[in-house]
């Protein structure tokens, strides 16, 4: 049994200690925003935050991260409005989206520890593989995310793709309300 805190929830994984964290997150916790591409630490698709650092979760086993605080893309910001997410959305960074969760987690960790990262630091932090060719827009978007996080810039709200958070919240009572007895 391996104990971790994942997205602020204490979790005990009944999996072999040598299970890669990426597999535990996806297969046992159903946190499928963490993608698996190469499985050998190269592509960055599986990046999560572990104790404040961006880590390629296919490269660490449960035993290696016992007791750690892990944040996945699902836990980064409740309303998907982390400065990196806002900046990426405003700049239309995402294409197919496969690599985006990992890149967002790396960029978020960077601006969490450096208020005003330079272009070289940004390039090193988001050196992920992207088959859609988003790299030309990445550095600008991460620089802008850092400015947002510092409060030096604002972005007009952009409609978020998928389910609107307010609509989703409003829908929950209807889904869970007990059936009335006739
Ligand atoms: S799947 Fe982990 S780095 Fe590629
Ligand atoms: S956006 Fe498609 S792989 Fe990066």
Please describe what this structure looks like:
It is a single chain. By secondary structure, the protein is of the alpha+beta class. The protein folds into two domains: 74 residues, Ubiquitin-like (UB roll), CATH 3.10.20.30; 77 residues, DNA polymerase, domain 1. The protein contains six helices and five strands. Helix 2 packs across helix 5. About 4% of the residues have low confidence. Bound molecules: FE2/S2 (inorganic) cluster (2 copies). The site of one FE2/S2 (inorganic) cluster (FES) has 11 residues, from loops.
Helix percent band: 25-40%
User: Number of domains in the coordinates?
Assistant: 2
Average pLDDT, rounded to a whole number, is: 90
What fold name goes in the CATH topology slot of the largest domain?
Answer: DNA polymerase, domain 1
Number of continuous helical runs: 6
Number of strands: 5
What is the CATH superfamily of the largest domain? [2Fe-2S]-binding domain
What is the multimeric organization of the chains shown? single chain
Largest sheet: 5 strands, mixed
Q: Determine the N-to-C terminus distance.
A: 47 Å
**Strand residues, percent:** 5-15%
Order of helices and strands: EEHEEEHHHHH
Ligands bound, unique: FE2/S2 (inorganic) cluster
CATH architecture call of the largest domain: Orthogonal Bundle
Q: What gross morphology would you assign?
A: globular
